[in-house]
Model the fold of this input.
Amino acid sequence: MFAPDPRLEISSIFVTDLALCQARLQADARWPWIVLIPRREGVRELEDLAAHDLETLTREILLAGRAVRAMAGAADRKIDKLNVGALGNVVAQLHIHVVGRRRDDPAWPGPVWGFGAPVDYALEKLDAMSALARATLQI
Amino acid sequence: MFAPDPRLEISSIFVTDLALCQARLQADARWPWIVLIPRREGVRELEDLAAHDLETLTREILLAGRAVRAMAGAADRKIDKLNVGALGNVVAQLHIHVVGRRRDDPAWPGPVWGFGAPVDYALEKLDAMSALARATLQI
Done:
């Protein structure tokens, strides 16, 4: 049975279940950031997914990019570049990060992973971002 | 007309042209590392690719993963995790990194991007890795 790794659960909040992935909002106010976790058991690498799941994943990555752009737009902080990454060095369960980057963000042009400490969202902001992400992903 | 960004050219060597991407070997002996550059002009984000190109890209990312595993195997250094990333904060032209990671590598569990300085390959080693990558990618 699929369940997100507890370390992913603790660092992000549930947004919605897509056809393949559970979409989660990374609990870090520094970046608009969606984490996609394919709802398949025991999957660590992209190659572990069936071909049709890989196609779905690609579509969901594009969707997550749109959600990240919408989140940035709502804060009037247009992004300069999407960063998409499947690393899994800390949590091996396959998960894909889709992150909105700006030239003036604290880690630019370096990667966000492992950079500094997460900054908490204000609670109402977290709700608003999560609702916006959900609305964009469910189009 | 497609041409790889000069900053990608200088940090990697040509391996082969696949159906969609130019595959290049990152000139950094610290990691088995393939860079895929879709041979399309003016493409910065995954969403800029046509749907059939995205499907091809997915297949070529899996192929590159196999090549990276082969390169690591040849050095008797089995990898623990593949890292796949499309960042583009430094070079905006769309390019996808496929990197073989080991628990005892210098940047583990952090990302490789922006970590320390590249280590040159010995010339004969570079040739051997490139030939091996080419053979694996062209299967």
Notes: The first strand of chain B starts at residue 12 and ends at 17. Strands of chain B lie at 12-17, 21-26, 33-38, 81-86, 96-101.
